[in-house]
Specification:
two-stranded antiparallel sheet, about 60 residues, about 25% helix, binds zinc ion, 2 strands, alpha+beta
């Protein structure tokens, strides 16, 4: 298995751990697994992922 890039919290210098997080968007909650700092609890949300998810959710809403 290829080694994944380890993200680190810039405040604690701890490796971020994947953690299931619930995001809310337009009153709809959906869960995603995001890297989270075990020290301070900071969740790292890549902006590209957020905008991609948002578009995905908007598309789903439109189709309903
Ligand atoms: Zn931290």
């Amino acid at each position: 298995m290829a080694e994944e890039t380890t993200l680190r919290c810039c405040a604690c210098n701890l490796a971020l751990e994947p953690r299931k997080t619930t995001l809310n968007y337009m009153g709809h909650g959906f869960s995603v697994t995001l890297p989270r700092c075990p020290g301070c609890g900071q969740v790292y949300i890549p902006e590209a992922l957020v905008s991609g998810r948002m578009l995905e959710v908007e598309k789903q809403l439109e189709e309903k």
